[in-house]
Amino acid sequence: MRNLRILLLLIAMTAACYSSSRLMAESYAVKNTYMFGFAASFSDSIIHFTEIQQIDSAWFDTKTKFLLGRDNYSYQLRDYLADNHKMPHRTCIVIYGDNKKKLEKKYLKMRRQYQTSQRNNFDIRTLGPADFKFKAVSMAFAVTDEEMEKITKKPKKNKKR
User: Fold this and answer.
1) Which residues, in sequence order, are CB contacts of 115 under 8 Å at separation 6+?
2) DSSP class of residue 62?
3) Distance from C-alpha of 132 to C-alpha of 159, rounded to nearest angstrom
4) CA 19 to CA 76: how far, in whole Å?
5) Is 59 exposed, middle or buried (0-12, 13-18, 19+ CB in 10 A)?
6) Do residues 40 and 74 lie in contact, with contact meaning Cβ atoms separated by under 8 Å?
7) How many whole angstroms separate alpha carbon 146 and alpha carbon 11?
């Protein structure tokens, strides 16, 4: 009797894990997005902004609309500044969006905050695409081949008659 309970428990746990992994994989989407990076340090007044860049295959959670691998994008900027500009230990973030115009407004607002700061002693530097370019981060390791086909399949457009 005890062995039967253990067997049923194992079967239930396996089924729960399988169904939850299927749900997780189906909630991903790969699409184009725009992003820019921001880097600062608490030990100096140098601020870095990247220009707005288009990422052609960014992974998103379709339910929360969060960019997956956000930390990897910010690590790219952090590592670039540490290796090429000898500026380690920068705090880096990425700001992203589907709409380039709205993202430009956020970008300009952030720059304005540092340019018109009351202390006004920030050294603002811009990294152009020739200096630094984000590389798309693949989250393909999280899904199977069949699920990958569902994610990357282009939706059919409905023809209006």
Assistant:
1) 122, 124
2) T
3) 41
4) 34
5) buried
6) no
7) 24
User: Would you say the C-alpha torsion 50, 53, 57, 61 has a positive or negative sign?
Assistant: positive
- Give the tokens for residue 66: 């969060």
**Whole-angstrom Cα distance, residue 55 to residue 12?**
41
d(CA 45, CA 33): 30
Where helices occur in 2-161 by DSSP H, the ranges are: 2-25, 70-84, 100-115, 145-152
Instruction: Answer whether 0.70 is exceeded by the pTM.
Output: yes
- Coil, strand or helix at 55: strand
How would you write the pLDDT of the chain (161 residues) with one tens digit per residue?
A: 666 666 556 676 666 555 444 444 458 889 999 999 999 999 999 999 999 999 999 999 989 999 999 999 999 999 999 999 999 999 999 999 999 999 999 999 999 998 887 766 899 999 999 999 999 998 877 665 666 666 556 555 555 54
